[in-house]
């Protein structure tokens, strides 16, 4: 696919533009976040992921994982195992993760960050690896924990989204590149969708992308392992 500017789009960028350009996207976002729903209709629990208890990236707790963060992760239908939860809240794992979080930018969108911030070996990648490789946390759960702490920088990426958009060697780097190509057209598209759905600006562009893709693929029938 060639962009209006005449540049080739990445495969992930192409796929996301197709998914985000469907007629159902705005309605899906409103349904998920409970915008304009009839009285008594309950929005998805994940609509509280970023905002529960004021958010995981507010300054006073941005560099440590709290019990509220772990509850927020549960709104996305996953649970951190109890032994790991205790180690995060009271043990050495929490201390090590806090050290890594201090090195991960908080007030920046993925599109504006340098690629090195989400590259292999970065503090964000090391935090993810620490949870997955040394503590046996599922890769989906580890990603959701980090997305709670840095919602503007690190995306939610689960099996449904992976089924919809594929499996690049590094999803973070592939998404970073897709957001920046063609003068950040994809990022601006996400902001326009957020506005069209009536969502607050505190819902990150990454979260708009995740929810839109997840709702679409869930509707058509997620069948990938």
**Main structural class:** mainly alpha
Runs in which pLDDT lies below 50 for 5 or more consecutive residues are none
Helix content: 40-55%
- The oligomeric status of these chains comes to single chain
Q: Whole-number average pLDDT?
A: 93
CA(first)-CA(last) distance: 28 Å
Can you give a write-up of this model?
With 225 residues, this protein is mostly helical. The protein has one domain. Helices cover 52% and strands 0% of the residues. It contains ten helices and no strands. The longest helix is centred in the C-terminal third of the chain and has 27 residues, at 171-197. The mean pLDDT is 93.
Give the topology, please:
Blueprint: H1 11-20, H2 25-33, H3 67-74, H4 82-90, H5 92-101, H6 123-133, H7 139-149, H8 159-165, H9 171-197, H10 205-220
Helix pairs in contact: 1-9, 2-9, 2-10, 3-7, 4-5, 5-6, 6-7, 8-10, 9-10
Structural key phrases:
globular, mainly alpha, 225 residues, single chain
Concise account of the structure shown:
With 225 residues, the protein is mainly alpha-helical.
